[in-house]
Amino acid sequence: MRLRFLYLLILLATVCAQPLAAQKKEIKEADKHFNSFEYALALDAYKKLMERKEPDAYLLERIADSYRLMNNSKEAEFWYAQAAGFENVTPASIYYYAEAAKRNGNYEKAKELYTSYARRVPEQANKAMALAASCDSAIFWTNRPLSYEISTEQSLNSSGVDFSPIQLPNGDMVFSSDRLPTDESKKKERFNWTGNGFVQLYYASMNEDSTWNEPSPLGNEINTDFHNGPASFLPQENILYFTRTNSVKRSHAKVNTDPTSWVNRGDGKGTGNINRHEIFMARRNGDEWVDVKPFKYNKPQEYSVGHPAITPDGKVLYFVSDMPGGAGETDIYYSERQPDGSWGEPVNAGEVINTSGRESFPSIGGDGKLYFSSDGHVGLGGLDIFKAEGEHGNWTRVQNLMYPLNTSRDDLGIVVDSSGTKGWLSSGRTSETGYDNIYKFREVNVECTLVGQTYEMVDQPGTHLKKRVMVDNVLLQLFEENVGSMVETHSDSTGNFNYKVEAGMQYTIRGSKKGYLTQTILFTPDCRFSIDSLLVEMIMYRDTPNVPIVLENIFYDLDKHDIRPDAAIELDKLVRILKANPTIRIELSSHTDSRQTRKYNQDLSDRRAQAAVDYIVSKGIERNRLVAKGYGETRLRNKCADYVECSEEDHQVNRRTEFKIISK
């Protein structure tokens, strides 16, 4: 970075005496390349000018713009920073400076620049401040990564752009790339937008060991001499739906020319042709592609239609277009297959999906979900990948896949398996030039911390209240159910203990200490981040015979004895105690308050106690280990007898279910 600034200072100090007229001619030629979308050529021309004239805001902005439009955010941020030092820098450059900083993960700087832009352009203040706030979200997500393992598919990637993989039923891969062929005789003309080759569709077969063979371009039936891709495949019909770029005569109307993102480029002053997208279909016949046909709603003279994504049943085709009437630069649309096999009129996917920005690169995951990329929804920078919640025609919300599936750079073209936990995506995350690569990802179990406590509830003399007393030196055995492994520890002097556990795994904790009943807890951690901690509480009960133990939260509907779902949860805990202590027999008793007659309360408590015992027996406990006993209102725990006015809370103390050990 210091060398760059030194280079710039040298340029500022070296002003050539070239005639002003010649400089203007060179600027005009450079601008011609720029306005014709030949950014690689424009960049060379502007940099040559830097060697012969003193830099100004315009020249620095043009260099920065060229890098931005070539998707090189690293260089774009540097050159916008230089332009920002001039008083006459345009507000647009401040905005693009912020965008570049955000793409580079420089969120604090981006936030500062969005705020500056809001002051300069008050009519855009709401949008700018929302973008500033999105930097806080990006920082939060980046600091709390989801647990994914991500690796580069080295054998699929090149020194150029490689993106939007799709997997065929046999496991082979088709993807888009602008790499130059290695055979010199087959090299095509470079694309002056990027300086690379033209985008083509490539095929790579998978070996038995899941490695890839050398990618090769699809045949001339699919690939033309201009841009082709991305694509989608319908296995049941062996049909490839793919994007093909059509060069059409340029007009002064709105133009979208980028073969992959379709951002509105230029100011309409250039000459020549522009790029518009079309969708084509081709049937696979062995190693050949035949019956190449255009999509019914291609209209390249007016707008682009591309990035197809076909549903597995072949009934809905999602795609991207900048056709009139959309919400933003590009929107996602869909077309439904008609009974006669034709495609229905395109329908906008709606405001839940589409924004004022770019929505693109839709795909249908193996889990049946709609995935797409957007820079209009809140994200980490550039294009982020989102998942649509809801169903076709009735989307409820979109969900950012967050970091590390998304980064501050462009993330797009995702392939997801039926579990929704692994697949491939393309991203510019590790690229110095902004070029995309293909990455493999899979979700891995998060390791987080289980924090536990062992304690007992002890009666406070003279009241019906209890207090928590920690129990130390409890032997705690952690069993991993899926593997069968076991780890031991003891609670410390304050009753605390902890374990490292993995999300999604099934565990049992068994706690034992002399003088107490052995306890077990079953749980499956639902931690999302490695910094998460889970609290587990183990209540220890004394194994003293004939001392009643109240089962909390055992409730019945008024005048009924049926076991409610919430009561079943508590009785399941008692089932685990009985299984962990197979030698004990217990009396399970039910108590009522004093309201209603004594006979009514006695009958009701008998039925409730018996219902509880029957439930426990249904869970595998031998009936001879259980005695059902109803006490009605004969063992009140407070003063609330007949004719004594009491609160509902006081009556609730008397309505309880208890158990006590009657033999060991």
TrEMBL record:
Which domain of life does the UniProt lineage start with? Bacteria
Which segment of the chain is annotated as a signal peptide?
1-21
Q: What is this protein called?
A: WD40-like Beta Propeller Repeat
Residue ranges of domain OmpA-like in the record: 543-664
Among SUPFAM superfamilies, the record links this protein to:
DPP6 N-terminal domain-like, OmpA-like, TPR-like
Is Membrane given among the entry's keywords?
yes
Keywords per UniProt: Cell outer membrane, Membrane, Signal
| GO CC annotation terms, alphabetical | cell outer membrane
